[in-house]
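Hey L., structure's done. Input below.
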Amino acid sequence: MAEENMLMKKPAAPSFANGKSTKFKSTKFKSNLAATLLLTSFLSACATAPGNYLDTSRLKDDGQHDSQAAETYPVHVIDAAVVTAQAQAAAAKTQVLPPSNLTDPSQYVYRLAPQDILGITVWDHPELTTPQGSTLSAGGNTTQSIGGALQQPYTAALPGQADPYGQTIAADGTIFFPFVGRIRAAGKTVGEVRDQLSTGLVRYIRNPQVDVRVLSYRGQKVQVTGEVKTPGPLAMSDVPLTLVDAITRSGGTNADADIQRVRLTRNNKLYVLDADRMLDRGDTTQNVMLQNGDVINIPDRTDSRVFVMGEVKTPIQLPIIKGRMTIADALTQGGGILDTDANPRQIFVMRGMKDHPTTPDVYRLDMTQPDAIMLSSQFQLQPLDVVYVGTAASTTFNRVLQQVLPSVQTLFYLKQLTR
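Output:
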């Protein structure tokens, strides 16, 4: 009986051993599962690290390109040679100016055009004088006396014929004058028209004394559009009209005007002028003389901005004032770089993305170098440049850790509860 009881108790030993093994495997499985979940959470956090940062894997300094790697963007390290080359290129840059037959205002002579209104005076012959009944004293003119009349509707006289308020040059460029007939006036100066009338009247009047003036300049004009207070057409007169004159006569510019990029359209060609160089630095080459049919557009500052992004205290867009802004200016107005988060070796300048979005020029400034302060205050930014401050590696790790930490804590408490 005792032997039979012993035989019945022997299988109990393996049963105890299997239970212990099963419990050990379960604990090991839970540990592996926790480690796997933790690793997965960490890797996913690395892939979706919070905050903005620049992936520099496709940015290679000059001379470090790998022909077998993916397409990379060359990075020009900002040093004294780059700054010097930039300054030399800016000094050697000659902007194409609009062609003009007259470069000296003293050579300017107004030539008559259709729709101009002339006042013609024949001394001692008031019946031939237009405007009718006007008289001249020595050294005087009739412009002031008929100023109100010129604002009234014109009479039904045919273009080019005598009008009580003056002689209007017809569309074909001619006028009609008694005893002389129809003569061509468009394209001539007032002196040439005067001589032509005197020659025609000499057969009827002994020693005729003729005077010709422009009562209203309506034949030639320029258009001023954009960021000016009074946009619209401006009549050209016997006084030469320059770019600055046109802006002034249009009431001046608005607060958002960009006078560094004034667009002048002449003969279907576009020219960009810098009026600020004339006003601020006295560069008279930019103050071109305008011609009939010119169109001037004063743009806003949309295309004269730079952008400061990345690890700075205040990401901001900045207008370029007086055509000059350096990296130091941009970073200062952005509040400076973040001491704890920024990588001072990665101050990037992205350039040319508007015209060449797939092949921009990239520059990098290392602020840890002794000459970095000097370089940052001399490297000139251009319109639509992007200044980007890179993120320090430790900052990226801390941001990933902050994202992973809640998952780690959850797994820790879960493990404690399962014990």
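The radius of gyration is 41 Å. The chain has ten helices and 17 strands.

-- N.
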